[in-house]
Amino acid sequence: MSRPTGSRRTRDIPVPRPTARGWALLGVGVGLVAAGLIVTMGVVITAGLLLVFLDVAGVVVALSVAAPLRADRRISRAVVEVGDIHRERIELVGLRARLAPTVSVHVHESMSPQLTGLAEAAATVTIGPNRPPARLEFEALAVQRGIASVGPLRVRVVDPFGLVRVDRSALRPTEVVVVPRGANVGTIDTGALAGAVSADQGRVGQGGSADDSELRPYRPGDPIRRVHWAQSARRGELHVRQTTQAQPPEAVVALDLRPSVYQDLGRDDLSELADIDGLVAFEHAVVVAAGVARQLAARASHVTLVADDAAAGPERPRGGSGLQEALVELATVQPHTASSPPETMLAAAAARGLSGMTAVITGHCSEHEALALVGQGQRGARGLFVSIVPPSGVVRGIFERAGWRVITVPVPAGAHGHRGHRRSAS
Predict the structure, then answer these.
(1) Cα-flanking dihedrals φ and ψ of residue 116, to 5°?
(2) β-strands 122-127, 70-75: how paired?
(3) Residues 210-222: pLDDT tens digits?
(4) Backbone angles phi, psi at 44, to 5 degrees
(5) What SS3 state is found at 63?
(6) What CA–CA distance (Å, rounded) separates 30 from 33?
């Protein structure tokens, strides 16, 4: 099902330019006219003017096609995963007048590096009054997370004699979000995820009974059948039973953006040398975060990604599962030295009322940081600690004694070629 992207047509003014053949013909024509004037030979002047007229006619024909040319772009999805195919359809409509010329139009669609064309995004179509709108389909492989730019769509119109060309932009660029695919499901223990639920939500979020209830003061409009008469008499005012329905818990995924935790992780020497700035390790952490978010989304009512200052921002609407929003955020996250540690992000998330299943994705974790993380667990909450390198025995012990699950998803061997976005840490 294709979706229109709200294609924005440009206001470029088509400017005709002679081709090499057109310049040659124009030069010969002007030369013949000049020679005819010198030798006063009318036939030579006429021949030169005829050649010049052909160039002028080419300008008129090319402009009559290029100026009214309209295009629309339709894309299959505005959000694609790394490894998926981006598909789009271009439709070109020219002047429909009966006397309009029929010419060939060369179409070229630009794409940013996040999308690698499976075939050249260029084609030549024929536009004419008795022809249906020209339709083109382009495909590209999503190879890198980020905001990809598709367009501008440029067209080149050449008159039938090949004397004059007109280049113009028919469509402005549009954005396609390339999100990380996520770690292989097999690398994440779903049993560990099931245990990453806060103790206070375990009863309600994972099998709470409709019989479980709590009391609250009576409000106008409450059904009389819910009044707890014994407690109301004891407390001196009406109280009603408020049934606690079994609802899936929410989930918070915290991604550590500090570059230092992804450097010198004790991998093999070649990997460390090739990834001295830790960008490959960070990219792997992003992929792991996407995989964890997908796993939690299957068990939680809503998934929220917190990454550095995003944790302190205004709370987002809770419509849907939140997985799509989390993946879109992961498409653009970058490491930077001023990033907050995970415990600070979780504290800010708790201040916003976010609670439930907690997952932290990071690289190197010290004993002090491990203690700070488990200290953020409110009311006995447990969490999921996911590291891209095996944590030390002491760090693992801290998390396990606090009831946290520890998962290691190492950087794949030889993964030091693709680094996603290259942006200096700041």
Answers:
(1) -110, 120
(2) unpaired
(3) 344 578 888 776 7
(4) -70, -40
(5) helix
(6) 5
Residues 152 and 10: their CA atoms lie apart, in Å, by: 9
Tokens found for residue 223: 């059904």
At position 322, the amino acid (one-letter code) is G
* Beta strands 174-179; 146-158: pairing state: antiparallel
pLDDT in tens, 168-217: 888 888 889 999 988 664 555 544 444 444 333 433 333 333 344 578 88
Residue 254 near residue 360, CB atoms below 8 Å: yes
Euclidean distance between CA atoms 305 and 323, whole angstroms: 9
- Rounded to whole angstroms, the Cα distance separating 88 from 174 reads 11
Q: Which of 175, 129, 126 is nearest to 152 (CA)?
A: 175
Please name the residues in contact with 127: beta carbons below 8 A apart, sequence gap of 6 or more: 65, 69, 92, 94, 102, 103, 104, 105, 134, 157
pTM equals: 0.71
With beta carbons less than 8 A apart as the criterion, state whether 242 and 215 touch.
yes
Residues of the chain with pLDDT under 50: 1-8, 10, 185, 190-212, 245-246, 310-314, 317, 378-380, 417-426
